Automatic annotation (TrEMBL):
Superkingdom in the source lineage: Bacteria
UniProt-listed Pfam families: DUF6188
Organism of origin: Salininema proteolyticum
InterPro entries per record: DUF6188 (IPR046179)
Protein name: DUF6188 family protein
Length: 124
């Protein structure tokens, strides 16, 4: 699933509480409750622990960067790609929710334990 309405949104704010929350300038909210991987073009991929005190600084690299795509795969993996070449990948957790996305019309997608995706339609 690709969130077409999320494409082109800029991350306006990152809150580093548990969960890590990214808010966009178009009203989307992305919450990450699991560890994630961040890759920077040609620099490889690094694991980011959601409880690490270094996480806010590392994630600030995506603030003010336009979201190119935000996609979920059927196995519950969330991939966020930014115009800067940064990509964030969040894997599903076998026992807990890994991430969720809420849109400006209150549409919601939750990655449930084990990677099952749960969809809630928005208000139209």
């Amino acid at each position: 699933m690709i969130f077409n309405d999320l494409t082109g949104s800029s991350v306006a704010k990152i809150e580093h509480y548990l969960p890590v929350t990214m808010r966009t300038d178009t009203g989307w909210v992305i919450q990450i409750e699991n560890d994630m991987q961040m890759s920077i073009t040609a620099a490889g991929r690094e694991q980011l622990n959601r409880e690490s005190p270094e996480l806010p600084g590392r994630l600030r690299k995506v603030v003010e960067e336009s979201t190119v795509t935000a996609a979920t795969m059927t196995d519950g993996v969330l991939e966020l790609q930014f115009s800067s070449g940064i990509e964030l990948v969040v894997e599903p957790d076998p026992e807990f929710e890994s991430w969720n996305i809420v849109g400006p019309s209150r549409q919601r997608v939750i990655c449930a334990p084990g990677g099952e995706l749960v969809y809630f339609p928005g208000l139209d």
